[in-house]
Amino acid sequence: MLRRPAATESIPPSYKVPLHDGNAILNRQRLNRPVSPHLTIYQPQIPWLLSGLNRITGSVLSGGFYVFGFAYLVAPLLGWHIESAALAESFAELPTLVKGGLKFLVALPFTFHSFNGVRHLIWDTGREFANKSVVRTGWVVVGLTMVSSLELAVYGT
After folding, report:
1. How far is CA 150 from CA 17, 66, 67, 117, 119, in A?
2. Distance between CA atoms of 107 and 115, rounded to whole angstroms?
């Protein structure tokens, strides 16, 4: 039977490794290993960009609901006025361009996450899962997101 040691650093046979030094050798070996290039070697592609954005928008939306819900519950205790009438009144005082920009920023994650969710539901049926279809439906989601977000920001009341 052939036996091959797994060591990457030569240790002289006369060297006795004390129990407290065993990890020191392993740590020195790890410092000499190459670091994986991770995402820096890959060209950005629409499927993995949209996958990451879908996770981010989902986290932002759910986190926003939890934060606003908690703030709404503790508002009376802290003297905050975040009831609907107060929010509508302060929003109405903003300049028109700022209102449109804020509405766009709020609508963007909602529409993207919704359209990308429909895309995932279509994938669950086994359709549109070829590479070209995945890229095409990704760009459709981006287009629908932009058009619907702009429409909601401009014409939404």
Report:
1. 67, 26, 26, 19, 20
2. 12
Q: Which residues contact 91 (CB under 8 A, 6 or more apart)?
A: 99, 102
Would you list the DSSP string of 78-137?
Answer: HT---SHHHHHHHHHTS-HHHHHHHHHHHHHHHHHHHHHHHHHHHHHTT-S-SHHHHHHH
Compare 23 and 7 and report the one with higher pLDDT: 23
For the CA atoms of 12, 16, 18, 21, what is the dihedral angle to 10 degrees? 0
What is this structure's pTM? 0.72
The backbone region for 15, taken as left when phi is positive above 0, alpha when psi lies in -120 to 50, beta otherwise, is beta
In the block, tokens 């439906």 appear at 137
Q: Which amino acid is at 67?
A: V
Please say if the pLDDT value at position 15 is more than 90: no
> What's the pLDDT band for 38 if we cut at 50, 70, 90?
confident
Which of 44, 61, 50, 43 lies closest to 144 in space, CA to CA?
50
Nearest one of 40, 4, 10 to 25, comparing CA atoms: 10
